[in-house]
Amino acid sequence: MTEQNMLTGITDATGLETLEIFADTDKFNSWLFETLAPYCKNNLLEIGSGIGNISELLLNHFITVSLSDLRTEYCALLQKKFGSNQHLKSINLIDLSEKEFDKKYAPLEKSFDTIIASNVVEHIEDDHLAIRNCKSMLSQGGRLVVLAPAYQWLYNSFDKELGHFRRYNKQTLTKLFIDEGFEVIHSQYFNFAGIFGWWLSGAVLKKKILPKNQLAIYNILIPLLRLADNLVVRQSGLSVIVAGEKK
């Protein structure tokens, strides 16, 4: 049974279809997890867990993990999939665009040692507010790890369909962290080879959904694509990662 069949009242049809496609890219998901994990501490919150493509890896690796999404249907699905996992602390309905975040989510203040937000902040018009709201949930010295799409010149039909307001680079995402009082401890690009597929399918062919067959082949080639990232020393990529500590 697909997530589409398990969910009712879905408000994010394109996003769900994209998440389902990536659910089958196990090698890519493992690569992403292994790239983010070194900058994470225990007592971790994942923002925007969606259907749990990375969540299972987090739960298998860290002792205390909380999941979240801004959509109730995704939270319900996460409960069905992971509710019995011994490392799951909670599943939270969280909207980082909430202007009165401190009041609405007061019980979560200073509750986590790490927050991961993978492909989240580009969906929020006021990204400074999103980072500030993440900071409020972190304990002193806690870490925020953000992955976001890279390079504004790559913005195309995929971004529009997925509801992206912008794309970033290392300088702009790092500045966002610094502006909100974080000490940046790491920054890099991720997935160099993915630039070409995103550009061809989204900018040239004007597709609105990532081609499933293309991603299946991509998943098989992950060992070579990881090598490509090493060859460019992670100085370019389809995504950018920044990790920072709360001062």
Overview of this structure, please?
There is one protein chain. The chain is of the alpha/beta class. Helix content is 43%, strand content 21%. The chain contains twelve helices and seven strands. It has helices at residues 3-6, 13-23, 26-36, 55-61, 72-82, 101-104, 127-137, 157-162, 170-179, 194-204, 212-220, 222-231, and strands spanning 44-47, 65-69, 88-93, 112-118, 138-149, 182-190, 239-246. Strands 3-2-1-4-5-7-6 form a seven-stranded mixed beta sheet, with helices on both faces. The radius of gyration is 17 Å and the shape is globular. The model has no long low-confidence stretch (mean pLDDT 94).
Characteristics:
247 residues; 7-stranded mixed β-sheet; 7 strands
List the helices and strands and how they pair.
Elements: H1 3-6, H2 13-23, H3 26-36, E1 44-47, H4 55-61, E2 65-69, H5 72-82, E3 88-93, H6 101-104, E4 112-118, H7 127-137, E5 138-149, H8 157-162, H9 170-179, E6 182-190, H10 194-204, H11 212-220, H12 222-231, E7 239-246
Parallel strand pairs: 1-2, 1-4, 2-3, 4-5
Antiparallel strand pairs: 5-7, 6-7
Summarize the structure.
The chain has 247 residues and is of the alpha/beta class.
